[in-house]
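User: Second chain of the day. Same drill as before.
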Amino acid sequence: MVDVYSGSPRSYATLSGVDVIMVKATQGTNYINPFCDQDYQAAKKAGKLLGVYHYIGGGNPEKEAQYFYKNIKGYLGEAVPAVDWESYQNSSWGDSNYVRKFVDAFYKLSGVWPLIYVQASSLNQVANCSKDCGLWIASYPSMNWKSWSIPNMKLNTSPWSTYTIWQFTGDNMDRNVANTTKEGWKKLAKGSNKKPVAKSKNKAAWKKKQGTFILGQALKLHESPHIDSPAIAKLPKGSIIQYDATLQGPLRLWLRQPRSNGKYGYIVAKDKYGKLLGKLK
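Assistant: Same format as last time:
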């Protein structure tokens, strides 16, 4: 596994021989990695297993958890979330209750316990999370270890029985080994005891509204209003869709196109980030 951030070469996201890519998503409550989705999508296209992480800034732990969730909720179920607890740029370093508050808040929102990244010498600061969260431990034989050969060294993970991820280099590249299978990683992404995510009291419903949508990019026309549903066609940029109803789902704005025999086609007008993908008239 390699973890990548804005300062990493973009090629790290598709590195040959690496099975897992962990992408930095957010930090504190006011930073989003501008290359997060670019690296994430490149890694996904390359067939990598996926993860996203938040770097603690040390502000209010509940607000940081909310900020992380808000910006990565579209990846949940596919990517393993993680929280990065380090001393650099962290005003709450040394607070042994901070990460506990963060992971509790994140779990309430997502139903998934995040992994916890921490240096081996500071395990005591996150020990109260060991029963719920997997461990991503950083421990190097030396800062000159620049090899994928796993070092032969004693690794203390207590109170965890073992690690989920071990980062064993941190100089020219953050090299890691994951202590799980492909199936195990996917299980971590989905959560083993998932709670329902809080939903709006107002259930999403179709609203009758006629209009025209001009595609600003190539988009798929789907058989049903689900992003993974089969495509009827892939429409090129500039195509014009006449729609008769709209649906604002939890992530995307859908338009309904009447077709022959009383059937419909469905297209995304706004993506999960709220970006309009064309012109509505």
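Residues 39 and 119 are 25 Å apart (CA to CA).

User: Great, on to the next one.
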